[in-house]
Amino acid sequence: MDGRQWWGMALVCAAGALAAAPSAQAQVYKCTGAKGETVYAQQPCGAGAKEVTVRASRAATRTPGEAATQSAVFRSTDLSDASIAERNCMNAARSNIQGPIDRRIETYQRQVAALNQQLGRTDEDALAAATRDAGVRAQIASLEQSISAERRSADSTLTSAQQRCAEQRRDREASIERTYAPARAPSDTATDGLR
Q1: Nearest to residue 100, comparing CAs of 148, 161, 166, 151?
Q2: CA atoms within 13 A on the CB side of 30
Q3: How sure is the predictor about 54, in pLDDT bands with cuts at 50, 70 and 90?
Q4: 42, 52, 108, 124: which could form a disulfide with 128 (CB 3.0–4.6 Å)?
Q5: pTM of the model
Q6: What is the pLDDT of residue 11?
Q7: CA proximity to 151, closest of 109, 113, 111
Q8: How many other CB atoms are found less than 10 A from the CB of residue 3?
């Protein structure tokens, strides 16, 4: 048996020992062969041998329990994401709707405050003051109606946005449930038509 065959046999033996070993890792030696090739062996195979730890690869198949657990974790994560997406949808809607309305209401409220300062001034005769105060009160009432209309509009628009965000969540949850639904056996689908 020449050196190359010996190294080949040593490599096959080492691989076989790794495959048969119950542990998840094995000790192997890495050497340089006579012609400069890299050789792996279970025993030190020369003066320059280096120890190498080889871990056995995990089997590609999963047990049904592992698959069910992984599926449950992924499903739970996706459902949490759907809930977070709904909250983000509502936060964006509030920002887009409430911000501009709040700024308009603040403007109306400043105008009301300025008009209230004009009421009851006594620098002119009583008839002129009464006429002016009546006009100011009418302006204040109009501004207060505008404030109420803005608040009703905000409530209505936010309710519509809430319904839209909730509908998007329901659609996403239904899609998630379809994705993670257990696979039905062929016999189940065949007997469904008989029920």
Answers
A1: 151
A2: 6
A3: low
A4: 124
A5: 0.51
A6: 46
A7: 109
A8: 11
Which tokens is 6 given?
Answer: 């010996």
DSSP string of 2-48, one letter each residue: -HHHHHHHHHHHHHHHHHH-SSSEEEEEEEE-TTS-EEEESS--STT
Under 8 Å between Cβ of 93 and 161? yes
Length of the chain equals 195
For the record, the structure tokens of 139 come out as 């302006």
pLDDT digits (tens, 9 = 90+) for 95-146: 898 889 999 999 999 999 999 888 877 666 778 788 888 899 999 999 999 9
Q: What SS3 class is residue 189?
A: helix
> Count of H helices and E strands in the chain?
4, 3
